[in-house]
Structure formats: C-alpha cells, structure tokens
Amino acid sequence: MGLLDKKDTRKIKSKKSRKDSVQPSGVSPVYSDDKVKTWFGKRMSDLFSDICCMIYGVDGTGKTGIAISYFEPLLLENKKLVIIDLDGGAWPIVKAHHKKAYEAGNIIIINPMVTTEGEDGTEIDYKKTFAKIRAIIRYTKRNYEKDNIAGIIFDGLSTLLRYAEYQMRIEKGLDADGTVSWRYWMPRNKLFLETLVYIKSIPIARFFIAHDDFIKEDQDPKKKFASVRRDTNSMMFQKIKCKRADKKGKVIFRATIDKVKYNNTAEGKSFKFLVVDNDKAAWGTVKLFNALDQDEKI
Q1: Which of 3, 8, 81, 195 has a CA between 20 and 30 Å from the CA of residue 276?
Q2: Do the strands 149-155 and 121-124 form a parallel or antiparallel pair, or are they unpaired?
Q3: What letters, b where the CB count within 10 A reaches 16 and e where it falls short, cover 252-280?
Q4: What confidence tens digit (pLDDT) does each residue in 107-157 have?
C-alpha cells in the first residue's frame, strides 16, 4: 500500500503541475515569444555603456570635475550631459570650466530639491524631491536617443541617503534624532537603492558622486558598515577614490581606482589628475579613464 500511495501522490503532483503550467483562457502573456526573440538578437555592448562609476572622497577633492571631464570629447560633438545636482556643487564647476558647453545647451544641470511652506517656515519636501529626481531619470531614459544624451551624473549620494532617512522618519512618525528599529530602515534603503537602480538602467554612461561615508575602508572598523552603502558599492562597475594633499606649496589631487570590473589589473593604481602650483592648474584625466576600461574610447 505504501508504494501505491507514493505513486498516487506522484500522479496528483503531476496533474497539478500540468494544470498550473497552462495559460488561463483569454489571458495573454506579459511578453510574447516574438518579443523575447528580439532580445536574443541584441548585444549588451550595443545596449549599455561600460561606465557605471562611483567617485567618492571628502569635499573638495575633484570628484565632480573628474566626472564632467569624462564627457568633454562628447560635448564637443554636441552630445548632451544631464547632471542631477542635489548637493549644489556641480554648478560652480560647470560655470567656471564648462561655460561654453552649458551655454550651447549641451550640459543640462538641475537641482531637484523641492521646498514647501510649513509651520516652521520653508522646509524641504523630501517626497516631492524624490519624485522630481525620478521624473528626470524617467525622461532621460525615454529620450536619451532622441535628445542625444551621452551620460548622466548624480551628484549627491550621501545627501540622497540622508533625505531618504528623513522621509522614512516622517512617514513612520519617528523623532529626527530618535533610535530606529532595524525594520524601519527597509523603506529608507528601498527608496534610495531603487533610485540608483533606475539610473543604472539607462544605457548611457553613469556617474555617482558620494562623500567618504561610502568608502568602507575609511570607516571606523568597530562600527558596522551599513548594508545600503555596501549594496551601493556592489552595483558599481567602477569606483574611484579622490584625495588631495598639500606638498611644498603645491596642491596635488590624486584618484585611486578601487574597482574596475572590465580591467582588474588597474585596481589599486593611482593617478595624479590635478596639480595647482602658483595659481597655475595642470589638469589631466585621460590616463585615468583609459585605465577604467582599455576598450573604452575616450
């Protein structure tokens, strides 16, 4: 009887499996076989840029300047660059060093912060700020070919993460400085990471600018490195750490490659990309970008 029982059980499971696999009558699949077949014929190298890069470091180490300089040859070809400038630090650089490209309409720079009037005066509306950021990303993704957009820079990852926390606290009714249970961090992480994934899904060159709180090696080893920062690091193809040093009257800016998925031999290499000496500045990032990907044409 035991053997017969097992056979009967298998028959029941088999019938159930066949029943579940049948498409319900009148319901079309989300993606047809013909649509799926079109995906098979596309090469990833034709769909996505190899550049998905995070540049991190303390304030004033040349992070935004490096990201914009990547696009200089493309801007000369009248291609466009979108900068989401949440920190407000990109505009002075654009104004000082890329004014012609900006005036020609080839650099689009937007500070997405939205404010509202509250009981205590003017306040940042974090929910609408995130909505504005996603609207910019959505437009860029839908129109990058038509508008000839070569890349997008998000300047202000550390600020974005802080805004996501503030929005979470508002929605959950938590004090600004109060202790938060681990389960409340999930909405914050989701809001933050989904925004980055949305940017990453655009098939153009993508740069993310962050402060040194995203550099795991520079954090207090006694404190746990937040999973949201770890996940952000993991989703990047390239990571560049920026530092500056004062030596004998000169200010030297260096960029060290922490990660390159396409050229592991470049990891750990350091490049001097800016030297300021007696009010003269010598800038150069070509070697740095060539090291990110030897096949990338700069």
Answers
A1: 81
A2: unpaired
A3: bbbbbbbbbeebeebeeeebebbbbeeee
A4: 999 999 999 988 888 999 999 999 999 999 999 999 999 999 999 999 999
Percent residues over pLDDT 90 in the chain:
59
| Mean of all residue pLDDT scores within the chain | 85
pTM exceeds 0.85: no
Residue 261 near residue 19 (C-beta atoms within 8 A): no
Q: By C-alpha distance, which of 227, 124, 214 is closest to 185?
A: 227
Domains and CATH numbers, the chain: 53-236 (3.40.50.300), 242-298 (no CATH)
Going from the C-alpha of 74 to that of each of 6, 81, 102, 127, 146, the distances in angstroms are: 67, 9, 13, 34, 16
Is 64:91 a contact under the CB 8 Å cutoff? no
Stated as kind and residue range, the H or E segment containing 207 is: strand 205-210
